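Consider the tokenized backbone below.
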């Protein structure tokens, strides 16, 4: 089992409370959901969420995903996991509060 992660806000996650899937705020424009490996999470938090509170880290089981997952090269030459479709909540193993 491989675990990857997605960072979101409590407010945005709550919008999908009654649904069996999740879409990131940029999903409609970018057509995929940004995810991170365990080694990439701290850099993502620093670059995109510095100073923000009430964040959540979704722990996602790659074997349970219903949409296609691709590792694609980012501008810093790292390869990040991108989910090309909705994130089915059945693949979310844990919702961890961070940034309190």
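A designed sequence for it:
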């Amino acid at each position: 089992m491989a675990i990857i992660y997605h960072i979101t806000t409590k407010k945005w996650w709550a919008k999908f409370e009654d649904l069996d899937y999740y879409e990131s705020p940029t999903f409609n424009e970018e057509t995929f959901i940004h995810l991170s490996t365990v080694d990439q999470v701290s850099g993502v938090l620093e670059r995109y969420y510095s100073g923000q509170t009430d964040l959540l880290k979704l722990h996602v089981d790659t074997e349970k995903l219903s949409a296609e997952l691709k590792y694609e090269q980012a501008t810093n030459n790292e390869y990040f996991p991108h989910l090309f479709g909705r994130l089915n909540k059945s693949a979310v193993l844990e919702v961890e509060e961070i940034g309190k």
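The chain has one domain: 3-92.
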